[in-house]
Amino acid sequence: MTLIYLLGLVLVAAGAYVVGRQKGVTFAMAGGASRMHSLPSYHGAYLAVSAIAPMLLWFILWLVLAHRVVEWAGMSALPADLAPADGLAYASRLREILLVADGVQTNEVAPGVRAAGETYALWRGLSEWALLIVGLGLALIGFAWGARQLEPQFRARNGVERFVKVLLIACSAVAVLTTVGIVFSVLFETLRFFAKYPWYDFLFGLQWSPQTAIRADQVGASGTFGAVPLFAGTTLIMLIAMSVAGPIGLFSAIYMAEYASPRVRGVVKPVLEVLAGVPTVVFGFFAALTVAPFIRSTGEALGLNVASESALAAGLVMGVMIIPFVSSLSDDVINAVPQSLRDGSYGMGATKSETIKKVVLPAALPGIVSAFMLAISRAVGETMIVVMAAGLAGNLTFNPLEAVTTVTVQIKTLLVGDQEFDSAKTLSAFALGFVLFFFTLVLNFIALRIVQRYREQYD
Amino acid sequence: MTEMTAVSGLGQRVDADEARARVRKRYRAEARFKAYGIGAIAFAALFLVVLLADIVTKALPAFTVTHLVIEAPVTAETVDPDGSRQAASLARGDYLKPLREVYQGFFPEVSGRAPRRELNGLLSSGAADELRAQVMADPSLIGKTVKTRALVSDDADLYYKGVVTDVVEEPGEAVATPSATSGEVVVTTSTPAFADDLAEIKAELSETARKRRFEVDRIRTLREGILADKPSAELALREAQGGGDATRITVAQNVLAKIDSDAQSLQAQMETLAGEAADFEARFKDSGGAEKLDEKLPSRLLAINGGIVKITSLAADRVEGVTLTPLKSQDAAQPNAWKLLTYETPETPAGSATSRSPGSRR
Fold first, then answer.
1. Within this chain, do residues B251 and B334 fall inside the same structural domain, yes or no?
2. Are the C-beta atoms of residues A434 and A186 closer than 8 Å to each other?
3. Would the CB atoms of A286 and B51 count as touching at under 8 Å?
4. Do B310 and B223 belong to one domain?
5. CATH architecture of residue range(s) A209-457
6. Distance in angstroms (rounded) separating the CA atoms of residues A408 and A430
7. Does residue A387 belong to the interface with chain B, where contact is any CB pair within 8 Å?
8. Which residues in A lie closer than 8 A to residue B40 (C-beta atoms)?
9. How many domains does chain B have?
10. Which domain holds residue B113?
């Protein structure tokens, strides 16, 4: 039925458009095109919009309300002794009713349920017809309303543009509302976690051992959710990654923007971008199977005790992964620095590197800082590499040769597998997610502020 | 502006020595700066190349398998139990048997149930699939000798791909004389041909001992980490006993018992490893003639006179061992007519006994 409705909607729009355009053309013929406010096609579009806008609104309203009404009708048709007592019973009763209504199962059900199923089917049919009939009726009313307005002087174009604007606002509202929804759902789960576990222990506790028992007599029944080791591990890996990606990315960007000939640039830039295109899983097993053993054996040759899953391996590979982020963004901002600044510097007798260090980089600083911030938030949020190469043990250490764990790895570990959804263990993942979200939000905020503050200084 | 006049020092000549030196310094800085850029790009490109090369070289062997080409007699009794030549009957035939018989014929010296089972284990359980397909496609092959490819087992396949162990071949440098053709063999050489190997084994001993010590340290840290939780677990037990809640007492007791058993098993591992390390160190220090080779050291095989001897004891000019495949003769072998094969991965690699330490299950 919804398909027919949408088809009808298209037909109504097309029909209204043709009629409106025809009317516009007659206006033009009668009074001359120069005396009209809008083109005939806008008259058509205006009529189409005024016909389908109420149809669309009615459709959305129907989508939200209709199944509730139908469900309510089916449920209230149940005899009192079959009426569900709680949410679980409600869902299973509804399933039975649906089976009857769909004609899948008509035998072996209680007569009361069968009656309810039939009522449900009746109401469902009614609601679908209501959709079609009311929708078409609304389209007619809208069409008539629009058609009455049409005249040579009518501002049809403005009306259409107003409609498009509203449509665009509605689209962006969907995106914004989704983000808000995500934030709030994470926030509420986090609050539920903090109801089970004190927030100061979570934020400042030194031991991470999220072992809650499924049975009461299991070993490790008490979990401790002190997240400091995770924050330390995340910070450590992020620092290692940034100490690789920062200088290398920045120097590559400087070389590409200032020194490289167009030919070299044409080769190097795609190569760096390939690095960004490698899937993180591939980086992950490269880190775990090649880099980590290499670091371990090198460390042993030097007499160091290196864990086979080390923060160094994960950090190094992650650093390489985010080189393209730093380099291509910095490259863009360096290119955006006005040539006049460089020319001025050369005119004073500065060498190229002096110009870059003293003039170009300060001018490009806000962009470079925001590139770094983006790279950092990428490093903090990266999961696959650390899952594979950094380990799971929540060690509180800043030794890059030991196994550490990060916030993202723990979120993944907590949510993989069968867990009841309201246990502290599962909920702690939301708390971690919230912290992560908050951290990246702050980073983005800082980056934005820096860009805003320094942006127009040299333009 | 003010800054510039302050540094440049008006009135200084541009061709003064100091000025030239300063310009040279600035150009050096310029070159250095440019080199940093090239270095950074080179690093990124190198990493990409290494990454791709690593993935490609590790992936390629997965696309190949190793077969043994065997000419096996296909008899009606084994492959066609009903004698009907119908697909249903042919599908139930035993195709592995003829392959195994031919294959075992290559190694007549292998006898006894266990060694023969081990030998058969080198053929994949799907070794006969190709032969079966051949015969089912063309039943007239029954009664003939069919050339077919038998898939080797995964272990054997990995060995052929060189994943299992590195094999080093050294040609013999002296005249070598075996004492027998099968069983326990002593091979003596005219000059101390094995002196280098002896030194190598000594080095391996000391290296293995060092690795064992290393492992001991690691396990000690692990054990201390586990024992550090003991006081809090004891406290929890006392509290539980004070509270009188039966489940909590059991939980606390279980926690405590796990800590104790983990610590104990780690202690035992430490002692084993430390004992091995001490043993290796003693052998390293002992400068006596022969060195025993066991499964904890790389295996060394002697290929001589068409047979293979697995070395169990090695001295500078004399090795003892057992034959894996019998020698054809007891003649003295000339230099370069025999060789020493070293399988770098020991039969039981270091740490294999300790890789499943309880602490690693966190």
1. yes
2. yes
3. yes
4. yes
5. Orthogonal Bundle (1.10)
6. 11
7. no
8. 247-252, 255
9. 2
10. 67-160
